[in-house]
Amino acid sequence: MQESVPPVWEMSITAVSFRHPSDGESGVLRSFLYGDDTNMWAEKRDVSYHGELSEDGLISRELRRQEYDGIFVLDSFGMVAGRRPWEVYMAEILFEVYQATGMKCLAVVMAKASLKEGSYLRMLEVIQRNFQQPRFMVWVAMGLDFDVVTLPKWLLYEKATRLLDRAAKFAPEQRMVFGGSSGIWQHRGRVPEAKCISYDLMCIKVKEHVRMQTKYSCITGGNIFAGMSLVPNAIGNGRVTDESMPVLIDAFKILSKWGMSRSPAPWYRRLLSRL
User: What residues make up the domain containing 132?
Assistant: First the structure.
């Protein structure tokens, strides 16, 4: 019997991709945002939820028909702060991944996404209903980090495993980036040391559980996203700024190659073992 998705009473999910100007203006919609210097357009589509009613019609036929090599699913970590709309920065990252690897990817983003609340499962439901099967998916669960410290380990293990098991029925190659580190979030000196240690250990434990007890690959974002620039806030992690774009672009290139690697080469396994 199929497991039910926990209800989410109101939420907004945004799908972001890019398009070359050379692709022509056929079907270009008002929701297209223009990059300033990346020679591409950023396309965004919002899906709103109110109870069990979804407005999937807001996703364009263009996005539905497009075949993507990979889909990145992110929480508010993907909402880069800067002079331009965050969707343009995300599209620029995807464009750079395409330039470097030849892989066209989609990003699906929701603010305050939570394993505990089931919102990642809801995002998976939207993806399955609206997009073609990709070759791989990477779940980047970086936001609301200190919330994980208050949750039982078994609950996080269960939620992460259930999500990946269900997603694997849609796209077999599943990867997860769970949490960051006190270092990359610049908590040291601002947050009690005991809390920093608890957070770092929890991220490592979830990563190791997924890697050792399931068939899926998992890393933390502690190394791959090191060096980010943040705008501090009062509730925990700061928001990633556009000064972090070189770090983000390089990281997503690695994540794309990781997603496509069914049997990673020894050097790549050594690299991932340090993440």
Answer: 10-273
| 52 or 120: which leads in pLDDT | 120
From residue 187, alpha-carbon distances to 234, 235, 237, 245 in Å are: 12, 11, 8, 21
* Helix residue ranges, H only, the chain: 61-65, 86-101, 119-130, 153-168, 193-213, 245-260, 266-273
How many angstroms separate the CA atoms of 211 and 178, rounded?
Answer: 11
Judged by DSSP in three states, 105 sits in strand
Query: Which residues, in sequence order, are CB contacts of 69 under 8 Å at separation 6+?
Result: 103, 104, 105, 134, 135, 136, 256, 260
- In Å, the largest CA–CA distance within the chain is 56
Structure tokens at 79: 């909402």
Q: Which two tokens stand for residue 263?
A: 């049997």
Residue 140 lies in a domain: yes
Q: Pseudo-torsion of CA 58, 60, 66, 69, nearest 10°?
A: -30
> What is the DSSP code (8-state) at residue 26?
T
pLDDT at 45: 63
102 within domain boundaries:
yes
Q: What is the pLDDT of residue 100?
A: 92
pLDDT surpasses 60 at 141: yes
3-state secondary structure of 46: strand
Give dist(CA 141, CA 262) in Å, integer: 22
pLDDT the model gives residue 118 = 82
Q: Is the pTM of this model over 0.90?
A: no
Average pLDDT, the chain: 77
For 94, residues 6+ apart whose C-beta sits below 8 A from its C-beta are 16, 17, 18, 104, 105, 106, 107, 252
Q: Classify residue 268: in a domain, yes or no.
A: yes
CA dihedral 50, 18, 140, 218 (to 10 degrees): 130
- Count of structural domains, the chain: 1
